[in-house]
Amino acid sequence: MKWLESNLVVIFWAVIFGEVVGYIGGTLEQMTWKPLQMGVSMAVVALIAVNGITLLSRDDQASSEK
User: Which one of 4, 42, 55, 66 has the fewest beta carbons within 10 angstroms of its own beta carbon?
Assistant: First the structure.
């Protein structure tokens, strides 16, 4: 259950930060801002990064304990 809750928090904050950065970047570059696309893509990137780092560090800890 802790894993699910932590991933939901990551998704929430990734969408919030993605929207803010996408809006600011779109305004500075004078491009159209697509909020749904930016939020979903940032959520996917954040989930891959967080879970990838967790899996890599877990494997590294297991190999160093042997």
Answer: 66
Strand, helix or coil for residue 32: coil
Q: 5-45 pLDDT, tens per residue? A: 999 999 999 999 999 999 999 899 988 888 899 999 999 99
> pTM of the full predicted structure?
0.77
Residue 31: strand, helix, or coil = coil
Name the residue with tokens 């305004």.
Answer: 27
H or E stretch covering 26: helix 2-29
Between the CA of residue 56 and those of 21, 27, 50, 64, what are the distances in Å? 28, 37, 10, 12
